Amino acid sequence: MVGASVPMVDSSMYSHAGGQLDRLCRAVGFDPEERRHLDLLRLLLGESGELTVDAPAQFPCNVADDTTPVEFSVAFDANGECVVRVLGETVGASDPREFLAQVAGEYGLVTDRLDAVADLFLPHDERRGPFTLWYSLIFRNGAAPRIKVYLNPQISGPTMADSLVSEGFRRLNLGEAFDPVVKHALRRGERDNFTFFALDLDDDPLSRVKVYVSHDAAEAEDAVRAGQLVPGADPMLIREFLAVLGGGKGPFEGRPLVSSYSFVEGMGGTPGNYSLYLPIRSYVPDDEVARARVHAILAQYDFDPEQLDKALAAVSERPLRDGVGLIAHVSLRMGEFGSGITVYLSSEAYAVAPPRKRPVLGRMT
Ligand code: TRP
């Protein structure tokens, strides 16, 4: 635990990440009077937020490559809206659910569904895998922030993952959802794995349950097949997304592609949305190349690429070609709950990954 003697320092994680988040919200046009994003970030980081970013992290965390416990994202929605989110872990807290207890009342969170699956995904005995509980803080202009939780299907080891997800669905009245997901997204044995089981916590009949599958060394056609479970996930758009951002048809042998499906109760187990995540940082030499590719895909869907540049400037001042991973992932969302492109931005609070060499064009002789 962090003691009370930790001094407030300007280079604290909270001031670093809070500055980034605040600039990001303003950059996409949110009300500058709004403070709730900072209040929530401060609570999420807790005491560890007071630690300096100038010394190595005290707590291991897989939210981001450099162990920063938060990652930002900007979701461009086909309805014209821009949503800012923070994915984060309450590192150093003795009970990861404490943050929820602190904010549930004020933000009207409903934890029934989390409670229904807590014994599966938050077991009291030994925990394994890269995390226990992550949060997503979701900010829209002029609206109350929303909160989502991510649970880890690998928490009791890889052999238990499928049965945890299957039982989780059953308890949330989505028992029919499991088999079709396995059939479409877990076709390649050990190379396809459940990685997250996520729940919206708002008091809304459209509150979603999302399940994520990572695909090691997958081809574009594996993503196409995964997408086919969702009416409206267009195979051409999936192929184009991977070609433009990932540079081809695969196999994507760096960090894995990830699929996710969104469900709401009462839909008979058919997901309403499919999302495909490309960890673009594994497939580009540096962030200048990543930015150019994201510009191309944004233009394709008539989103304003300038918004991306403003978002990048809000998070980092470093020259884009001096590192790789500021743009960590890009995702394509398709379906009846809303379509769009989401760009994930690293805080790089602790470290910037060095760029790789760009390919060199040989001279014709
Ligand atoms: N850093 C982890 C990874 O890259 C977890 C993660 C953070 C992630 N944001 C994500 C995974 C977005 C998929 C999509 O795997």
Describe this structure in words.
The protein has 365 residues and is α+β, with helices and mostly antiparallel strands. The chain has one domain (13-346). Helices cover 30% and strands 20% of the residues. The protein is built from 10 helices and 10 strands. The chain has helices at residues 13-27, 36-45, 98-107, 112-121, 161-171, 178-185, 220-227, 235-246, 287-300, 305-315; strands spanning 70-77, 82-88, 133-139, 146-151, 192-200, 209-215, 257-263, 273-278, 327-335, 340-346. A 10-stranded antiparallel beta barrel has the order 1-2-3-4-5-6-7-8-9-10, surrounded by 8 helices. Strand 1 (70-77) and strand 2 (82-88) form a beta hairpin. The model has no long low-confidence stretch (mean pLDDT 94).
The major sheet is characterized as:
10 strands, antiparallel, barrel
> What percent strand?
15-25%
* Rg (C-alpha, Å): 20 Å
The low-confidence runs, each spanning 5 or more residues with pLDDT under 50, are none
How many domains comprise the coordinates? 1
Average predicted local confidence, pLDDT: 94
In percent, how helical is the residue content?
25-40%
By DSSP (H or I, 4+ residues per run), the number of helices equals 10
Organism: Amycolatopsis silviterrae
Keywords: Transferase
Protein name: Tryptophan dimethylallyltransferase family protein
InterPro entries: ABBA, ABBA_NscD-like
